[in-house]
Amino acid sequence: MGFEEADEEVENFLETQGSDNNYMVGFALANVVGLQYYTGTINGREMVRLVREPENQFDPNAIKVLNMSGQQVGYIERAVSLALAPYVDETLILIEGIVSRALHKGTYKLPCQIYIFSHRDLMDMARQSLKGAGLNVITAEDQEFLMAESIAAKEINPEDSGTKEVRRIDDIFGSLSNPKKRQVMEACELVTSTLLQHQKEALAWMVQRENSSEFPPFWEVCDKTGKSQQLIYKNVLTNFETNVRPKPLRGGILADDMGLGKTLALLSLIATNRPGAKLPPVVDIASSSESPDAENPKNPNAENYTNPKSPNRKGAKRKRSGSDGSGNFTMEKAQVHNNCQEIVFEPPDPDGPKATLVVCPPSVLSNWVDQLEEHTRRGSLKVCLYHGGDRMKEANEILKFDIVLTTYSTLGSELTHQSSPIKEIKWLRVILDEAHFIKNAGTKQAKAAIALNAERRWAVTGTPIQNTAFDLFTLMAFLHFEPFSIKSYWNSLVQRPLSQGNKSGCSRLQALMETIALRRTKDMKINGQSLVELPPKDVQIHPVELSHEERELYNSVETEGRKVVQNFINSGTVLNNYSSILQIILRLRQICDDASLCPSDVELLLSSLKIEDASCDPILLKKLLSVLQAGDDFDCPVCLSPPSEAIITICSHVFCKTCIEKTLKHLKPQCPLCRKQLSESDLFSSPKVADEDEVRPDKVAKTSSKINALISLLKESQDHDPTTKSVVFSQFRKMLDLLQEPLEKSGFKFVRLDGSMPPKKRAASIAAFMSSKPGSPTILLASLKAAGVGINLTAASDVYMFDPWWNPAVEDQAMDRIHRIGQTRSVRVLRLVIKDSIEERILEMQDGKRKLASSAFKDKSDKEQRQMRVEDVQRLMRLS
After folding, report:
1. Could you tell me which CATH class the domain 17-163 is placed in?
2. Which end of the chain is more exposed for a tag (fewer CB within 10 A), N or C?
3. Could you give the percent of the chain with pLDDT greater than 70?
4. Which fold has domain 248-277+348-524?
C-alpha cells in the first residue's frame, strides 16, 4: 500500500473491517407478514436475509425478508421492526433470521426467529437498548434459547470466546496442495512453450472447472415431490429449496504461490479451451506411479508418461446420464494406458461468447503482453489493450479480439458509465490477476468486477488471504457463488464461526476451497520431490551506521517524538492522535534513508510535534498534510484507490473527497479511522506542494550513509561479476530521485519503475532491464508498490531492500519478482538497515506479523486491536 506514513493505520483499519467480532446477544420471536403479496418461497428451517428498507413509503422502519435467491417473501411485523430498525441503522446490532416452517398456499404469516448480534464490547448496551424498546430478547440464560432452530445459536456462544482455536492458512489450503488424484493436460498447438508438470495440472483442473456441469458445492437433489414430479434442489447449508437447477460454478480461485508461472497456465487455458476447439484429453495419473520426470516426454526414465497427443490414444467421451434427470455427467469407461486414464471434455459453445477479459494492476499489463509474445504463436490470439484515453468505445469492435487487457482503475472508473462497453459485453471468461486488489468489497473496482457479465470467472492471486479469511468474501462475490457471495450468509456460515473458533466454519471453508481453489507453493514436495527446482535465495541484513550529523538529527527528532507520544499514552489519546504519531515515525524512517527527505524547517516540525491537538488550527492541518504528502503514493483507506482529490479531516486523517463525503451522510458521521465525530467544517482540501520544495537543496549534494553503503555494495558486486543485475526497492518515490545522481556519478547504467509512469514507459523500463544485450542497464530502481506484483525481473540476481516495509508479505512479493520460474542464478537479498534505529524495530514487528499472518483465522476484538496498536507505538518509540 502507498502513503507509507499511514500504512500501519490503514492495515489495522482494514483488518477490523474484515473481521466479524460480533457475538450473539440473543434472539427474538416475530412473524413474517404480507406473504400473499410476494412470490418468494420458503422451506422449513430456512435461513433468510433481513434487509432494512428505510425508503419504504408506508413504514420507514421496514425490514424485508428475502430468501437465498434474493426473492422477497414478506416483511417483519411492524411492532418488532419498530424496535430493531434504529439500532440496525446505527450499526449497534446485526440481525439474521430463520423461518421455522415452510410457506404453503393460503398462509398469511410465518413465525421467524430473529438472531441479534453485536460487538462483544457493546453486547450489554444492545441488550438494554432492545429491552427499553419493548422487545423480548431471549438470551443464553433462558430455557427457550436451547430450543433455537438456528445453526448460529448452536455454534456461537460468547462464553466460548476463551477457547478460540488458532487456524493457519495452510489448514484451509493445505489439502489442495497434495491431492490424492492428479490429472494433467497438454496445452494446444497455439502455445509454443512446454508447460511444467504443475502447470499442466493447473490447466487440466481449470478446463474441468470451466466445462463441468456438476452442482456447486453444498447443493443436492431431493426426491421428486407433488403431482408435477419436479426435481427439487436443496442447499444443505441454508435449507433453501428450488425447482430450478443451480448453475454450475464455472471458474474458481487459482492461488498458486508467487513465481510459479500462473500467467502461462492462464494463457494456456485461454488458447486451449476456446469455443469450438478440439480439446486435448485430461490424463488421470495414478499417484502410485508418479514420476518427477513425467513432464518430459523425451526422458526415457519417464515410464509412466504417455503423450496425450499420440494418435494411438482414444479418449473417453462424456455422455448425459439421464438416469436421475439431473443433467449430471457420468463418464464412460476410460481407455487406460500405462496407469494413465484419459478424459475428454467438450469445449465452450462455438456460438457463444469468445472474448476473455483480463483485469490486472498497471504494472502487470506489460507482463501479459510479454508472456503472449514469448509463449504463443504469433498472431494466433488477437489482443486489445483497453486502457488510457484511446480505448475503444464500441462493444462490437472489442469483441473482435480474443483477449482484452485492462486495469482495475479503468474498470472502476467505468462503474457508473451508462455506455461502458466493458459492462455491455457478455464475456466468455473474466480473469482477475492479482485478485487481492479487490479484497475490499466496497471499492469501485470490486463492485465493477462483480457486476461484469461472464460465463466463466477466475480470481488469480498468490496471496488469497492477507489479513483474515474475510478477504475471501469479495472473491466469492466476484465468482457469484451463492450463498457465500451474500455477506450475511458468509458471516453466518463461515466468518463468524472461524473468528470465534468453531470447527464448522473451518470445515465449510475447507470443503469449499477443495472444490473451487487450487494452491501450490514453491517449497511444496510431492512424493518427496520438489514442485519446482529454483536456485537458492539468501536473505541477509546489511547493517549501516549513520554519520555523526545524521545521528544528531535522528536523536533530536526521536527524543522530541518520544515526549509527544508519551503524553498521548499518559492521556489515553494515542488513537485520536495517530496521524501525529505516524508523522513522527515517518520522519525517523526518512532520516534513516536520507535527511534530504525531511522538510527544510525541521525545527518547526519538532515544535509542532509538541502540540497535542491541532484541531483548532486549520493552517497547521494544511502544513501537516504537506508533510504527509512527502511519502509515496497514497491509497484512501476506505476505497483503497489513489484519491483524485485528497481531503484531510480535523483529526488529521486523509481520505478521498467522495469517500469522506459519503461518511458524513450517515446518521452519526464520524471518522472511519478514529471514530471522531465530523461535520463538513472539519474537512480541509489538500494543498499543492511545489516540486522544487520536495527535496532540501542544502543537502542534495551530500549523499547519505545508506546511499554510500548501497553504492559500495553495487561496486563490489560489479567487480565480482560485471554481468550481475540488481533491483533496488524503496517505498519512497523521492528516494529513487535521490539515488539517480550517485548512480550516474559511479558509472552505473540504470532504469526506473514507479507508480507515476504510464504503462508504456513501465514496459519500456522492464524490457530494457531484462535485455541481455551488451550495454543494457544493470540496475532497476523500483517503487515497492509499482514493481512488487505481477512482473518478471529474473534478469536480476541481487535485490536491495533500501528501507523496511511494515507488512512482510509485500516485501516477499517484491523478492519473488526475481526468485521465480526462469531464474538461473542464486538470488541474494540484502536488506539495508540502520543500526540502533526505528528500522530495527520495524523488523521485529515484521516477525510478529508473519506469525499473525499464519493465524489469519483468529480475529481479535476491537479492544484487543486498539491495545495492539498502542503497544506497537510503544515498541517503535522505545517506550516502556
Report:
1. alpha beta
2. C
3. 73
4. Rossmann fold (3.40.50)
